[in-house]
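Exercise 7.
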Amino acid sequence: MNNSRNWQSLLLLIFGFGASFLFLAYAMKTLPMGTAYAIWTGIGSCGGALLGIIIYGESKDWRRIACIALILSATIGLKLVS
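Solution. The predicted structure, written as tokens, is:
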């Protein structure tokens, strides 16, 4: 693999982590820590599963989609009650 590609991937990863933590810190200014963290992890879980389905051709089984919907609905519910 190309060495410059490795550096680009590493920089993108570091930028993504930094932006993620920055947005988590921003959310914690208005949301309770537990709710902000639950939303943050829910977005990461659903995002990872959806990227796996879209980019890597992982299973689109209805049960998998239903579980993603449950995570999203719980995340939205936490936001609505906080």
